[in-house]
Amino acid sequence: MTAAAPGLRVRDITVRFAGLVALDSVDLTVEPGSIHALIGPNGAGKSTCFNVLSGIHRPEHGSVRLDGTELTSLAPHRIAALGMARTFQNIVMTSGTVADNLLLGRHGHSRAGFAATALRLPHAVREQRAQLERAREIAELTGLGTHFRTPVDLLPYGDRKRVELARALCLEPRMLLLDEPVAGMNAAERARTAGTIGELRTRFGLTVVLVEHDMGLVMRLADEVTVLDFGRRIAGGTPAQVRQDPEVRRAYLGAPSPQESA
Amino acid sequence: MSDRWVSGRQASGRRVSGRAALRRVGPARAAGAAAAVLLCAFPFYLDAFWLQVGLFSMAAAIGAIGLNLLSGTSGQLSLGHAFFLAVGAYGYVWLAGEPGPGLPPAVAMVLAVCLSGLAGGLFSPIAGRVRGVYLGVATLALVFLGQHVMVNAEGVTGGFNGRSVPPLEIGGFTFAETDPALVVLGVPFGAEERLWYLGLVLLAAVWFSARNLLRGRPGRALSALRDSEVAAAAMGVPVARYRSAAFVVSSMYAGLAGVLIALAFRGIVPDYFGLALSIDYLAMIVIGGLGSVGGATAGAVFVTALPLVMGRYADQLPLVAAPGATGHAIGPTEAARYLYGAAIILVLLYVPGGLGGLFRRRVRPPTPPVRQPKEQTP
């Protein structure tokens, strides 16, 4: 699927929303092929960081480099074309079936334009068929094979989360940003998704950046952890190191808010 | 959107619904073929009035399919559809007529459609900057701008009184009354009969192309824009380009509808292309059900045919005065407006999928229940 896993270098990123500093000179280095977790209490700036990485927010200053390519000046669809795919914290899906959603993820890998599609030109029909096959393979891979034709509205929550993951995989990314991939899932679904993420990494050499509140999952999956609090990076290192860090314990692990322990 | 893909290749869990899908493709195809035959036979049995009603409905359907692509699928509210219809209609009349370059009408027709597309493309930088209701208001400006130009650019548009429409001619065949009358199977073929077939062919082409678009890559990108621009962009869809492409394509359909309307009316006036027409088109796609080609067509027929048919049978309707009657009685046009106002409310309240959704629900079996894993979390 990919040639070489890329490295992500984030340097000195600052994002402000009308006076509120969402990210304050944040540095982040993601090693190629690793699973990197981004943790922190609510409002720490994790999702903002993802939005900067995927080009939705433009930072006030700082640089984001993916394999040496500067991303901060690129439009989101260009960043997606460079091999960066993401999921969203709150499921964002288009109406239609699982297949429709996965085929949307194939957008950048297909070419058929308005005229060719409208007239059903042979190459457009062929392409659609090939993309459908590819989407089906990815659905099988993520355990959505039996739901391929099911309208997403009818799927239970956990499966919809998986559709988002599968749709991101359809971009055949080198780097995958997962915003709370197991939030709201039950224990069995969590374990299943965690297994899928680990498997994807080894199988395709994906680099994964993950925002997650489930500390058990983070400790088990992540090679490295970066901790944010109020927009600042307060710690980083291996899960074991981070767990011992007094600053982290104070900001996050020591006082879990009620909804996180639920 | 993608029922064509349902097939026996499904995993065993969905086999039943796959078979059901095959069973329902049969009747749907048969019904489509029967409708086509019936539509082709109409000119031999119906008088000019009904052919006119059909012709206006077909033209409206083409325009509604275009607006549906823009507002229904890509979620860009447009109150300016009348403007793009006018560009098509006046573009054809000017290009084919005198004063004007006097091009062959078939060429003028194609160019008029392109001209509408160009107008849509020119507007799209504005469309790229405003969203939702604000876009609606911005498109409203187009209608007023169009009205001003139509009334004042007399050299091109004929001013307040409008212009007569040169008949279409394709390869020596004229879509109008000819002197040695054309008689087919004992039925004299005047303008209505000939235009009827033109309308059918155009509507079929528009239906076919719009369905393909909606089911294909561009359609998926457009509906992704409607559901979330951020997610669409993150999936690799160039948002600005697709937003303006939706405007261009929708305007081209509107331009074609405008040409057909001009041909059916045989004369066009600025009054017709006012705000009310834009609202009519919005009513069509809402009544028909946003996002579906069949729905837009059904809505177009409903909104277009209702006032005409009510006008024709006004004397037989209770509480409706004959056209032109004085006094406080409700005229047929007003009555038709009340009725479709009521229809919009009824559709919004009781048929969220619109007329198209109503039809789909009747034809398709209910979706099979989905395996529900035991869930503890909401």
From TrEMBL, chain A:
Q: Where is the ABC transporter domain?
A: 8-255
Q: Does the keyword Cell cycle apply?
A: no
What domain of life does the native source organism fall in?
Answer: Bacteria
Q: Which Pfam families match?
A: ABC_tran, BCA_ABC_TP_C
Work out whether the entry's keyword set contains Transport.
Answer: yes
InterPro entries linked to this entry: AAA+_ATPase, ABC_AA/LPS_Transport, ABC_transporter-like_ATP-bd, BCA_ABC_TP_C, P-loop_NTPase
Protein's name according to its UniProt entry: ABC transporter ATP-binding protein
